[in-house]
Design brief:
single chain; flat; calcium; signal; glycoprotein; metal-binding; membrane
Amino acid sequence: MKVDFNSDISSFRWGETSNRNWYLLSGTYIFAVLLACVVFQSGAQEKNYTMREEMPENVLIGDLWKDLNLSLPDKSLTSPMKFKLVYKTGEVPLIRIEEDTGEIFTSGARIDRETLCAGILMDGHCFYEVEVAVLPDEIFRLVKIRFLIEDINDNAPLFPTTVINISVPENAAINARYALPAAVDPDVGINGVQNYHLIKGQNIFGLDIIETPEGDKMPQLIVQKELDREEKDTYVMKVKVEDGGFPQRSSTAILQVSVADTNDNHPVFQEEEIEVSIPENAPVGTSVTQLHATDADIGENAKIHFYFSNLVSNIAKRLFHLNTTTGLITIKEPLDREESPNHKLLVLASDGGSKPARAMVLVNVTDINDNVPSIDIRYIINPINGTVVLSENAPLNTKVALITVTDKDADHNGRVTFFTDHEVPFRLRPVFSNQFLLETAAYLDYESTKEYAIKLLATDAGKPPLNQSSTLFIKVKDENDNAPVFTQSFISLSVPENNFPGSQLTKISATDADTGRNAEINYLLDTDAPPEFKVDRRTGILTAVKKLDREKQEKYYFTALATDNGVPPLISNVTVFVTVLDQNDNSPIFTHNEYNFYVPENLPRHGTVGLITVTDLDYGENSAVTLSILDVNDDFTIDPQTGVIRPNISFDREKQESYTFYVKAEDGGRVSRSSTARVTINVVDVNDNKPVFVVPPSNYSYELVLPSTNPGTVVFKVVAVDNDTGMNAELRYSIVGGNTKDLFIIDQTTGNITLKEKCVVSDLGLHRLIVKAKDLGQPDSLFNVVIVNLFVNESVTNATLIYELVRKSIETPVTQNIETADASSPTNDYVKIMVAIVAGTITVILVIFIAAVLRCRHSPHLKASQKNKQNSEWATPNPENRQMMMMKKKKKKKKHAPKNLLLNFVTIEETKTDDAENDGNSVTLDLPIELEEQTMGRYNWGTTPTTFKPDSPDLARHYKSASPQPAFQIQPETPLNSKHHIIQELPLDNTFVASDSISKCSSSSSDPYSVSECSYPVTTFKTPVSVHTRQTDSRTS
């Protein structure tokens, strides 16, 4: 009986059959249906997998348990489920299977598709089959596993020779084509031959590829230019062939083209495709077919040479002979249909030209009954010296072996009948079309029959029929009927830890009702027993071979076994429970050797700094841990039980950045154990320091900028520092005022002031820039401002003049809006401008009205002073009445009109924008400044009192008035008792004073221009800030 691996049953799973030389079993459709029913009822299954060739060892391919949806039955099994690979004795399987899990892995055998399926055509599939038995017999099923071997690109395409010679007539037309020998690649599909390239074709020849009906790719040489044999008769090039695999493989051959005399006609076969059949027992020399080809030329050009194409397989070339002159094909070696049932012979006929004729001869080898059936026994129960040993109480249907019966012949010659020669308690159960299971059909009895020799017979249906027989030996083994019994159903004991290795714990004992060797008991521990315990095999004394550690494991559960010496031995088990008692052998363990806590410097006293966690692996009082701080440390406390650390001090990062001490943990054991850990508390900075400008050092300093300076050149660098750290000390610079011509820009990170555009004549002179430095502190940032004077000129010829210009620049009101935040939307800007215009208009009207009223009240005094013709000069403030006296001019000494007294107002306006970062309220502060040019030099600015920090920049010089006026210290409305406030404290010299400050403040010091008792609310500067100046009418008397 013969079954092809590509039978109808397997084709139903795969959808296409293989071209491998495995052959179909003849029979009717009804027989196939009945056979399928038998296979289904026998518990046989098929499973298909795919694996690549050359896979390494131990690669997981599949899981039969999951893939077959197996599940354990409700009833208990006589033995655990296992998977057994069934294969022929002496065979090296390509895969292995885990008996317990059913996982399929590659074995150490090499998987070479080209060797495994050498007889398969190039477009065929390569399969490998094995059988797996699922045991025990209660759930037995047989699974045929078919592996599709996928090809990998492990072979390079090769030409038949390294040098290819071809002849081309010199009168060959342009675009004439001439066939080249094709390359052969043992790989298939995309890994086979895919492309050809012509190297160094010299623009005379090209290369094209055509695909034959069989799917082969054939290279053709194309003539691209006219040839002249007298000019050049030989061309040497290279042909490269490539496959499509990854990585791609290729090879080259030398192509030598000879230009020959004209050969006008090419050979032509009378039949281009011939199919013949010949029996496999045809003798050597038998004629297969006669090929006929003609050539219209005469003489040497008409002589035809026949030869096989290099695409013909090596097997076909070995079996068949082609007469190169006559074209007769004969048998060269004996045929074997079982080796190869058909052959494709591609014959070429050439007259010496470059275009040989092609003819395909398909030879079908017919079958004769020349093969006897084969019986392949694959044992499910492993034999001992060729004999299977079965227990006398083996259950019914115990599977002994899988027997495969095959016949290499075809049709009736391959149909096999399989049976046993006499009555035995075993039967053959068909599982697949050509496979049978040998299983027990009745209970065995050792006392009646101790062994069986089962003769298996197979005969085919050929005429005459051929027979084959094989003998299978089975030996029945006597049973051990009674298992040992333990005297205790459960063993429990307690052992203190840190015991001496080898100390005895208890004695385990069991009895056996059998006699002789079947009653001899051996004690052992099951596989679940830990390595800390050991039992004496003969006496049953249980000992602890290692020191026990309760902290690693407190309880042990394991199984002790008692087995007799019967064959097979019977085993009983008992559960052993060991409890390990604690001793104080572990010190407290901190979760970290060193703790680092980070607290803000504004953390209140007795707040929570952090938590120290400590564990003790011991149990009970041995694990009760108490915490304390080593050495005397009044700065911090720790809770002895919870480990919470609290400070007894207030933190100030600027004074001390970190604190370090050690914490001790002590357990409550009878002999206590302790350990220590280092604790470091790092004070985290908060934003409590404003930026301080270092460069420029003074508001009256200046920097020369040459008119020829190129745009983008750094003309000045502003430098500020912040005593905070991190983001609180990271500064951003911006120009918030001045820069009326928008001639300069500043880098917000570096403070570099660069020239924005080329200077023109109108840009010569002094430029004033109000620069703001703002830190990135959270939640509120702090800032400071400074004035930068840039003098655009070719040189500094008169420093006194420049300082005079700087002084006058200070007197000039700021006319440009100061923006310290991101630009708002156009709608918001328009509303701001309108509000500012209305507010400015109302303010001007009020100032004019107040000035008029004051002028009316003081007019008598002014007239009296004119009559007395007193010397016109600025009057000092009167300490008693706290009023500033008006200055008069001497009419006799000065003929020109008196100088105007300029009363300037600087408006600092803060507008709340829609931006979430600008959360301040809108505040407007109008501050008048009286400026007089001539009296500036008389004022002693060095006597001005200040309460600002000594290391702060001097901003006061930029706000000097032209007239000698007192300086005022602005105090906040409420005490600043928190160092985390966001109020901007202005230095005394940087304070704007109100227009009526002269009349409301007095000085008790000797300096008539100093007023120490006058205080004003401090205005909070927040972004965005706009500074507007407006000038009131100044009148002279």
